[in-house]
Amino acid sequence: MTNRLTGEQKAAILLLTIGEDAAAAVMKHLSPTEIRKLGAHLAALSSISKEQEIEVIQEFKSAASGGEIGVEGRKYVKTVLDKALGSGKATQLMRSLTTETYPGIDTLKWMDAKAVANLLRVEHPQTIAVVLAHLDPEHASQVIALLPEGLRSDTLHRLATMDEVQPDTLQHLSEVLEEVLQDRSRPQSMSIGGTKVTADILNRLDKSNGGTIMAKLAERDAALADTIRSLMFVFDDLVKIDDRGIQELLKDVGKEELTLALRAANNPVKDKIFKNMSSRAAEGLREDMEAKGPAKLTDIERAQQKILQTVRRLEEEGKIVVGGAGAEAMV
């Protein structure tokens, strides 16, 4: 029976038999391309018969425990990828498991932001926008910050108004990049760009760069800028998280980081935080804030950004719910 299976299918079945921890350990040693190929086969599996299990394991000269293995492939591979790569990269890989791949574009996802920016700075803003749409928002924001100032607003405007890109366009771009990089594959994403992606990227920029870009976007397209603002989440929006969510957030935020971040927060945010702490902890935090000397605004904003990153992570993990669409202004 196994002679009808490809090597990748056999490898997927083997991973399903050895358990999530062992599978995660194996996948840590695979390349992104290998993980994606193997993950696609894992996600396609619904169940494995006893006969298939035994034959595959014998072929790999391993031992397997008995019993029928009933596995929901997609749910299983998400768990394995979470363990191997972390939630963020696992989620992005899961979205691409069953799509076409574009080798040149894919390579950029695994490159340092500075290297990507150096590569893209000579490209047309539309090309840069397509590339940014394929990166995760954190990576894309780092790349944007390293691009020449004249490119930033034009690129993000194109990204915000982008909807779909034809496969042949993506293929051509991939081939061009592949000639330069001579590296591996990247999944097709037919629905890319848009205001939400742009808002996610701007959320991760420092206030100075983000404010400048938003101002230029507003000059060019005020309605579009308003839409993007409505999708952004800034520090003042912590008041939109319910009390249980704030309590969950406080478990993951360090005291020094919180003390610094609250120094430039408005009163509603401070009240929200204090309300969800014990009276002793709240009093201690107030005393720390009063005792601290002057702090650089950049340090305060950095602390706020770290807390917002924690908010996004907890929201992705389903531990908190952020109420409302986002901030009404870039502050």
From TrEMBL:
The lineage of its organism: Bacteria, Pseudomonadati, Nitrospirota, Nitrospiria, Nitrospirales. It is found in: Bacterial flagellum basal body; Cell membrane. Its main location: other. Residues 114-184 form the Flagellar motor switch protein FliG middle domain. This is Flagellar motor switch protein FliG. GO terms for molecular function: cytoskeletal motor activity. FliG is one of three proteins (FliG, FliN, FliM) that forms the rotor-mounted switch complex (C ring), located at the base of the basal body. This complex interacts with the CheY and CheZ chemotaxis proteins, in addition to contacting components of the motor that determine the direction of flagellar rotation. Residues 216-321 form the Flagellar motor switch protein FliG C-terminal domain. Residues 5-100 form the Flagellar motor switch protein FliG N-terminal domain. Belongs to the FliG family. Keywords: Bacterial flagellum, Cell membrane, Cell projection, Chemotaxis, Cilium, Flagellar rotation, Flagellum, Membrane. GO terms for biological process: bacterial-type flagellum-dependent cell motility; chemotaxis. The keyword Zinc does not apply. GO terms for cellular component: bacterial-type flagellum basal body; plasma membrane. Pfam families: FliG_C, FliG_M, FliG_N. It is a peripheral membrane protein. The keyword Membrane applies.
